[in-house]
Amino acid sequence: MQAANAATKLPDVGMLRRWARELGFASLGVADVDLSSAEPGLQAWLDAGFHGEMDYMARHGAKRARPGELVPGTVRALMATLEYAPQDPGWLDAARSALADEARAYVSRYALGRDYHKVVRARLQRLAERIEAHVGAFGYRVFCDSAPVMEVELARRAGLGWRGKHTLLIDARRGSTFFLGTIYTDLALPAGEASDDHCGTCTRCIAACPTGAIVAPYRVDARRCISYLTIEHKGAIPEDLRAAIGNRIYGCDDCQIACPWNRFAQPAALGDFAARERLDEASLVELFAWSADEFDARLAGSPIRRIGHERWLRNLAVALGNGAGGDEAIAALRARADDASALVREHVRWALRRLGAPLPEPQAAGQPCREPVAQAASGDASVHNRGCEPPIRASHRTSERGKRTPCVPRK
Ligand code: B12
Ligand code: SF4
Ligand code: SF4
């Protein structure tokens, strides 16, 4: 980054907050960048293998906890939040209804509209330019889930909220339904103070997690998290986790829906995150019918596009298999039984078996039914950019049928 010159005067943090609000951000704070006390937690998480296939989490290792190694000269992080909750004040109930409707697809509320990475970064850039116009040249770099940056930890230290037991940042005035954005800077602004934790004895998020991914307070095993399984994970979804995914086809909000603080969630300030393509009400069958071209065209500018059509179909096949079945769902699945992708074919077969409408198995009796699975090409370096075994919750009807399907043809 370009360094601040000796004459650079420090901007007032109150003024920065006003500018941030004018750009649509809900809050802004300043964090010191000494993350040495957070480094052991990050390392323990990596050592436990909780990152799964997210190689970049391991690859960047300590750099994530050492901002000065990523961007030399960094002394502070400006942290900002941008809200994404739907405008409907009844959105939490609407989300619960969508999750309970087996014929409908559930897309995580953050992903219904435009890709947040671009939206957040573009606005952070405008904020930085405004600061520059006021103080003169200074060193900075903007990020949103796009580089090895400990965004939640920095935002916590900046006083923007506390880390909930689900690991996300919570602000008492607006819950957790916001994105985080970061500006690393060489401006030695006064750092904020971390806020108190207000989770108390509550454990609702842990109990609500369909796959038991919150293995302990403040510890998420990403390999079990539906967000990871439907977005980050490239190959076959482990069979023992498929039933618990229910109708969630992209991301998961359950730990946030369960959190009492999200009664205070504020609607998105920007129109960018409003639902496109009826993603908040579409049926599984409808979305499963999209061709690759339709997928690309309809989801241009959406974060979902980054998983590609193959993983989209994989996720939808799992959700269809978790549904009530019926002629329409079975016909839709059968129509994709010979899909060019082995990954899709295997999930379609699984779904049909689960719905009691199995196709003849290609293998001889007693052979494993899993076909070789094509690995999708890797995306860019960011997690949601490319975009969860404690008890499996049986509240979703499909979970009750969560027994592993035997991998041999039925007689
Ligand atoms: C990797 C990642 C994921 C992974 C892993 C999640 C995770 N909890 O680590 C997956 C794919 C599962 C995921 C899912 C989601 N994510 Co995400 N994710 C990230 C990313 C890129 C890095 C997070 C990270 O550093 N994880 C590493 C672990 C070590 O960090 P940690 O869990 O915070 O752990 C700390 C402590 O809890 C403790 N700790 C953790 N484990 C252990 C273990 C031991 C033994 C010890 C001692 C300590 C310890 O130490 C750590 C350091 O302080 C950030 C963006 C960024 N660059 O920061 C977004 C981010 C955290 N995600 C975000 C969102 C919105 C989500 C989802 C809600 C999306 C969705 N609806 O589907 C879900 C929520 C799932 C959840 N409950 O976490 C937002 C959160 C916004 C907010 N309000 O906080 C972020 C900040 C992106 C953004 N820019 O807005 N995500
Ligand atoms: S599976 Fe859902 S509820 Fe569980 S941690 Fe992941 S996002 Fe939260
Ligand atoms: S559900 Fe309860 S424990 Fe979980 S983050 Fe919210 S307040 Fe904290």
- What ligand species are in this complex? cobalamin, iron/sulfur cluster
Mass-distribution shape: elongated
In whole angstroms, how far apart are the ends? 66 Å
Whole-number tally of structural domains = 1
Strand order of the largest sheet: 1-2-7-4
Beta-sheet strand percentage? 5-15%
Described by strand count, sense and barrel closure, the largest sheet is: 4 strands, antiparallel
Q: Can you tell me the residue ranges where pLDDT is under 50 for at least 5 consecutive residues? A: 365-383, 385-411
Radius of gyration, whole Å: 22 Å
Number of strands: 10
Helix and strand string, N-terminal first?
Answer: HEHHHEHEHEHEEEHEEHHEHHHHHH
The helix content is 25-40%
Number of contiguous helices: 16
Output the structural class. Answer: alpha+beta
**Chain-averaged pLDDT:** 88
Describe this entry's structure for a reader.
The radius of gyration is 22 Å and the shape is elongated. The strands form 4 sheets. It has a 4-stranded antiparallel sheet with strand order 1-2-7-4, with helices on both faces. The protein is built from 16 helices and 10 strands. The chain has one domain. Residues 365-383 and 385-411 have low confidence and may be disordered. Helix 14 runs parallel beside helix 16. 33% of the residues lie in helices and 10% in strands. The chain is α+β, with helices and mostly antiparallel strands and 411 residues long. Cobalamin binds at residues 38, 41-42, 44-45, 54, 57, 108, 110, 144-145, 149-153, 166-169, 176, 178-180, 218-220, 222, 225, 227-228, 232, 251-253, 255, 383-384.
